[in-house]
Write a structure and sequence with these properties.
Layout lengths: L7 E11 L2 E7 L10 E4 L2 E9 L2 E7 H6 L10 E6 L18 E11 L2 E7 L13 E4 L2 E4 L2 E3 L2 E6 L1 H6 L10 E6 L1 H22 L1 H6 L8 H4 L4
Antiparallel strand pairs: 1-2, 1-6, 2-5, 3-4, 3-6, 4-5, 7-8, 7-13, 8-12, 9-10, 9-13, 11-12
Length: 226
């Protein structure tokens, strides 16, 4: 579990391809993780596999490389890093799992004084999990959605975030890792499931399936509309 407050930026120093994915070597002299510890690398939860001087190594599976930007990053790329939370830590951002939902390309970059407004395009499947003033994680950074339009959302990057993360390096067309708010994800899933149950109940399908058993459908789901 993380909170989306970046603690350091590292540099991708090596990549060793394996049959099951790749081992990444990351250099960072200001982060001091332990062997076996979880660390968010550009928002992706990975496990420390080895420590070497000012570098550490993590293993990324084929699924991780496919779903995130880690599979396409070139050596020398800057990476946002955050160690996993402890129970006594402050939640400076929001609850972040490190489980990436997908990537989104940067389509807009507008200076706002010493800040930046960034716009990203996203797939329609995310519509139900995005809300203005809601939370979103971009490359591991906890941010607030300031605007949502058709297949595009916007965030504002303040000077401190520019200084402490790699978001100020983004170029138009460059993809970032996106983790949707975990609470929005579960609410959307519940609503989808509940809608399906109501549809099945009204057609009598559920009643047929449970007939002869001790199970009963929820009266809220089976009552007829008045």
């Amino acid at each position: 579990m993380f909170t989306g407050i970046i603690q350091a930026c590292g540099i991708l120093k090596g990549r060793l391809q394996k049959s099951s994915g790749a081992r990444l070597t990351i250099q960072c002299s200001s982060l001091f993780p332990s062997f076996g510890e979880s660390v968010a690398v550009d928002g992706t939860c990975l496990t420390i596999a080895q420590l070497k001087n000012d570098c550490f190594e993590v293993d990324a599976s084929e699924e991780t490389l496919r779903r995130t930007t880690l599979g396409a990053l070139s050596l020398g790329s800057s990476l946002n890093l955050e160690r996993s939370l402890q129970l006594h830590d402050r939640l400076g951002g929001h609850l972040v799992l490190g489980h990436i939902d997908g990537t989104a390309p940067l389509v807009q970059r507008i200076p706002k004084g010493d800040s930046f407004q960034l716009g990203f395009s996203y797939p329609k499947e995310w519509n139900s999990m995005l809300a203005i003033k809601g939370c979103i994680t971009i490359n591991g950074v906890s941010l607030t959605l300031t605007n949502i339009e058709l297949n595009r959302f916007e965030v504002v990057i303040i000077p401190t975030t520019c200084h402490l993360t790699n978001l100020h390096r983004l170029k138009i067309g460059q993809k970032v890792n996106i983790e949707l708010d975990v609470m929005a994800r579960y609410v959307a899933r519940w609503l989808e499931h509940n809608t399906l149950l109501q549809s099945l109940s009204k057609t009598g399908y559920l009643n047929q399936k449970i007939r002869g058993t001790s199970l009963k459908t929820d009266p809220i789901l089976t009552q007829e509309d008045e």
